[in-house]
Amino acid sequence: MGKELSKQQYGKMVKKASPNSPKAFIIGGIICCIGQLINNIYKNYGFSIEESSTYTSMILIIISSILTGLGIYSKLGKFAGAGSIVPITGFSNSVTAPAIEFKKEGFILGLGAKIFIIAGPVILYGTLTSVIVGAIYYVTTRI
Fold this sequence. Notes:
By secondary structure, the chain is an all-alpha fold.
């Protein structure tokens, strides 16, 4: 028979292995609040909802890429865990980080080949899924 753990031992193991979610929640919330603030500024200047959302996404991507290049985003990720992987900023980080890491191998074999090493499958399967769902939607609405 295997070694059985007491409830107290098991609780200690769970606590040790569990991430510190309050940090993740707070940092993720701060990133989202910054995005909403940028969006509200654009709306106050008379931009449409679509335009302000587009510009907000672009600014968050640029900020995330710059912070990744400066090595700040990885420190934020270590501190906040999943809170730093708010969809648009986390995706920007996942594209920028390999590009920086493999830049020394040259533009074609390093940067060009490795830039989508992490984000590539997300782009591929996201696009493929959207085409399939779109085709199903088109067929079902025509029947």
